[in-house]
Design brief:
The chain has 244 residues and is of the alpha/beta class. Helices cover 32% and strands 24% of the residues. A hairpin with a 2-residue loop joins β4 and β5.
Length: 244
């Protein structure tokens, strides 16, 4: 990854936390992890040209923003399914091939965006997923934090899931300069764990199989997703990360 020995040797306290309670406990530079599918979707949105995303915790706030700004797009889910009146759900495959250049997307989900709202003690917040994990680790190292909180949001912020823990463990390994030789194998195994729903024909309309494969593709985007707050509203930004 191009980390020099000084960076690898830096003292950095790394904690892996779980669910909404973990988000509330997060301190320092905090990564809110949601592989299936919130921050995977956000990475694909930025990869397809989106200018900005606005993570919100409530449907009411999403509808209010749309009313005030009709040009905004709405994306999000509850129980995995697209929210009423929204342009998109939380599915990366549903936006495949679409051009989002210059678009602002209001995004609300049952886990990832809830974690952002709950992480009030964090110094800085990033959105985390496998698709941009390496770039996220690079960004964290460039910030030289003393404390890093990796928060696994799981299912609806209430139930632990394997994919978010895997992403957290991968980020920790990257930050510590350690290899994870079984990463690809563990990604594949997710289809028999939390990823089972993507292979269930009865749930195909909500959890299409293509989403699974898109979400487990690690390190395909060269940017981190930084989350800031202004005037009481969260917004994200694509931050390019280069290998120095």
């Amino acid at each position: 990854m191009g980390y020099n020995e000084r960076d690898r040797g830096r003292s950095m306290e790394i904690r892996i936390l779980q669910l909404l309670d973990g988000a509330r406990q997060a301190r320092g530079l905090t990564v809110i992890i949601d592989v299936f599918r919130a921050f995977s979707l956000e990475a694909y949105l930025y990869g397809q040209g989106a200018e900005c995303t606005l993570p919100v915790s409530s449907l009411e706030q999403a509808y209010e923003l749309k009313k005030a700004h009709p040009e905004y797009l709405l994306a999000g889910e509850r129980k995995g399914a697209i929210c009423p009146g929204f342009d998109f759900g939380n599915s990366p495959s549903a936006i495949a091939g679409r051009d989002f250049s210059g678009k602002t997307v209001v995004h609300t989900t049952s886990a990832g965006t809830q974690g952002v709202a709950a992480a009030s003690g964090a110094d800085e917040i990033l959105g985390g997923a496998l698709v941009n994990a390496e770039a996220t680790a690079r960004y964290i190292i460039s910030r030289h934090p003393e404390e890093v909180s990796l928060v696994c949001m799981g299912w609806e912020g209430l139930k632990k899931t394997e994919e978010d823990l895997l992403c957290a463990e991968y980020l920790r390994a990257l930050l510590q300069g350690r290899p994870m030789p079984d990463l690809d194998q563990r990604c594949e195994q997710l289809r028999y764990q939390e990823g089972r729903k993507f292979f269930d024909p009865a749930q195909a309309s909500v959890f299409p199989e293509a989403d699974f494969w898109m979400c487990i593709r690690h390190d395909i985007f060269p940017f981190a997703i930084q989350i800031g707050q202004k005037d009481g509203l969260f917004s994200t930004a694509r931050v390019e990360v280069r290998d120095d």
